[in-house]
Amino acid sequence: MRVSDEDFTGGPLDVATLEVVAGRVSTHPLVDGWALRPDALSPRRLEVHLDVDLYPGAVEAARLDVRWFEGGDYTVHYLETWDDQTWQCRWDRHPKPGGPTEHFHPPPDAGQDIEPSELGATHHLDVVFTVLEWVSERIERLHDQ
After folding, report:
1. Domain assignments of the chain as residue spans, ordered by start
2. pLDDT, tens digit, for every residue of 80-121?
């Protein structure tokens, strides 16, 4: 599932917050790099590239796509690619008719089904670093399989 701009009503993208997140996540041991996409002049998301060498051999690529909006809404989309497949999930905070404002779209496809989010964080750095902790646990589970 692709996340589109129409999926969120949190207002304009908060580019300054994304730049702060980028600077801080670059120090995390799972992070291999980051980029504003499609470019720094007109960003739509922060791509956080994860170090694929930390994953089992079947995983070819992994990243977080982060969007933070001026109204405080967000989406953090985790994507893992292996064997020409994408395994993904997503944490969101935005108004959701018939569902909680903070919610989780579970793997393997981050589809329309939602569950209440268990992030328990509202600050941008807490949200992203909590997701990175979840990713670390995901990597451990993959190694145990």
Report:
1. 5-144
2. 999 989 999 999 999 888 889 999 999 999 999 899 998 888
Query: Across residues 57-85, what is the average pLDDT?
Result: 95
- For residue 38, say if its preceding peptide bond is cis, omega within 30 degrees of 0: yes
Q: Show Cβ contacts of residue 20 under 8 Å, excluding neighbours closer than 6 positions.
A: 124, 125
* Strands, E assignment, the chain: 31-37, 45-50, 59-68, 74-82, 85-93, 102-105, 115-116
Q: Is a pLDDT exceeding 90 seen at residue 75?
A: yes
Contact 2, 33 (CB under 8 A): no
Cis peptide before 95 (omega within 30 of 0): no
CA-to-CA distance for 111 and 91, rounded, in angstroms?
12
**Strand, coil or helix: what is 138?**
helix
CA angle 138, 75, 53 (to 5 degrees): 35
H or E element: which one contains 24? helix 15-25
Length of the chain: 145
